[in-house]
Amino acid sequence: MQEKIYSDLDPRCDMQPHLPRILSRDVYYPGQTIIEQDSAGHRAFYIEKGRVEVVVRDGHHHVRVAELGPGEIFGEMALIEHRERSAAVRALENTTVTVITEAELEHKISRIEDKAVCTLIHVFIDRLRQANQCQLAQYRSLAEFQDRIAGLVEKAHHGVSEEHRRDFRKEAEPLLEQLQELLDKYRS
């Protein structure tokens, strides 16, 4: 069903039969980076076959924000806004893409007569960038919390002597039960 929804994005769909046009295709292999985050964006990509993952990074933290497949497009945000790439994209399997140039995309957008629609496109892109950053911030917070818990476990394992471990467990057990209740409360 998704291919049907996005089929209008296929750069091959509006080719004029009487005009010669060469489309550029690229093939990427599993693990190969297609787009580097923070790089300049001059091309978008329409996935003909295969799957890719979209990853946002901030320092040591990486969050997978999407997995895309045939009939979907990526790399368009940087072209539309003339900004750096907000995410990295990597092939998950053998992936064939049709390249959409900046000029092609600008030509399509310039044909939109309603300025409100053009503005909405920019609003949606801005909201998506913000949502990706919020998702990354939540992941970072969770990772820091997990690191803190792991540090406490390590300290308890190496810092409590054998003769005190029984008493430590006895005092820590109610705290662990409270933590479990708290986790259950907020788990969706």
Describe this structure in words.
It is a single chain. The chain has 188 residues and is α+β, with helices and mostly antiparallel strands. The chain has a single domain, classed as Jelly Rolls (Sandwich). 48% of the residues lie in helices and 22% in strands. The protein has 5 helices and 8 strands, in the order αββββββαββααα. The chain has helices spanning 2-6, 76-81, 102-110, 115-159, 162-186; strands at residues 25-28, 33-35, 43-49, 52-58, 61-68, 73-74, 88-91, 95-101. It has a 4-stranded antiparallel sheet with strand order 1-8-3-6. β4 and β5 (61-68) form a beta hairpin. The chain is elongated, with a radius of gyration of 24 Å. The two termini are 28 Å apart.
List the helices and strands and how they pair.
Elements: H1 2-6, E1 25-28, E2 33-35, E3 43-49, E4 52-58, E5 61-68, E6 73-74, H2 76-81, E7 88-91, E8 95-101, H3 102-110, H4 115-159, H5 162-186
Antiparallel strand pairs: 1-8, 2-7, 3-6, 3-8, 4-5, 4-7
Class by alpha and beta content: alpha+beta
Number of E strands:
8
In the predicted model, the low-confidence regions spanning at least 5 consecutive residues are: none
The CATH class: Mainly Beta
Q: Write down the overall geometry.
A: elongated
The percent of residues in helical segments reads 40-55%
Our count of domains comes out at 1
Q: Note the main sheet.
A: 4 strands, antiparallel
CATH topology: Jelly Rolls
The ordered H/E elements are HEEEEEEHEEHHH
Count the helices. How many? 5
Specify Rg, calculated over alpha carbons: 24 Å
